[in-house]
From TrEMBL:
The keyword Transcription regulation does not apply. GO terms for molecular function: argininosuccinate synthase activity; ATP binding. GO terms for biological process: argininosuccinate metabolic process; L-arginine biosynthetic process; urea cycle. NCBIfam families: argG (TIGR00032), PRK00509.1 (NF001770). This is Argininosuccinate synthase. GO terms for cellular component: cytoplasm. It comes from Parnassius apollo (Apollo butterfly). Residues 178-403 form the Arginosuccinate synthase C-terminal domain.
Amino acid sequence: MTKELVILAYSGGLDTSCILKWLIQKKFDVVCYIADIGQDEDFDKAKKKAINIGAKDVIIEDLRKEFIDNYMLPAVQMGLVYESRYYLGTSLARPCISVGIVNAAKKLCAKYISHGATGKGNDQVRFELSLYSLWPEGKIIAPWRLPEFFERFQGRSDLIEFAKCENIPVVATPKEPWSTDENIMHISYESGILEDPSVAAPSGIYKMTRDLHLTEDYPSKIDIVFKKGLPVSMVIPSGHDKSMTLSDSLAIVQTLNKLGGQHGVGRIDIVENRFLGLKSRGLYETPAGTILHVAHLDLETFALDREVLRIKKSLQDKMSDFVYNGFWFSPEAEYTRKCLELSQETVNGTVTVQIYKGNVTILSRKSFTSLYNKDLVSMDVAGGFSPEDSTGFININAIRLKEFARFTAQTKF
């Protein structure tokens, strides 16, 4: 009898390797899907491991460019920052991976997609809402929410024991006491010893960025060019009136990650609100994303009308929530995304930034589509501005304040 086919989102780690074996024992054929989104991973080794466990096939797809061009950089353009601090590195990767795995499922006529996300986290929601948006007729197997799985495997020790019994290689017996998620945009760290927010993160935990005392003792200066809010090129002076120009998005992000990492840029240690209602502590390092966001915000404020900027700020906060909660493909996100993209028509120009000792400092900016009027704002020339008009402006705005003061004085006992 023909077995039903499952496409498993596979990482090569303990959880998904055990899930792979468990699915095979449940009489499924399993094809593993590995998305390369810039994580430091030995993909050939992971493929061999999956085949040895019993996978029917392994698909490895390079999605780095796709992730940067269609998720990371549009997030910079839209100014997406969850709860004012988190640049959404993991959240943005989930819809990107979902597109790849759904395409694989459709191509292979699979009936199911499976993943190893836990029952308490955000990723299960992000994956599954994206999968159902892209593949409404599809079915999902989430082992960590199935009693027959989570009652059998109470934790990591049970998985390790199962792996040993099934001859699944277990590399990480003395595992780092926290979990990580990595892509070309960021690395996140959570769980384990990090679950106590009152305890400082251990030294040596960060991988992308240096501790400040180990950073370079000289600043790096770069020019970042934006077109309609999207970073399109970068110029790095190299001395003697020479410079290096990059216009490939992957090269830009890789270079900014390296420079930002050398200067300790992009680290945060925060407590955030998960969609499920739980608060969780997370450590994030996002060097390239931090530099691009800081530069974009400066140019955007320089170019946009004040009221458009404020409306755009409220929309970007909504869009950040949509992305964090897994609604990238929702109708409300599509509508909001179009509004935010429209706001960026005039966000064109170059921002010069300095990267040094954990800081991204704006040195200058220029744009031919900015509303900035040097003559109008100058303290040295009138520039068409009539100072006496300010008197009426102040008087009109003072009416409300005077009336409130009068009312307050009358109602005091």
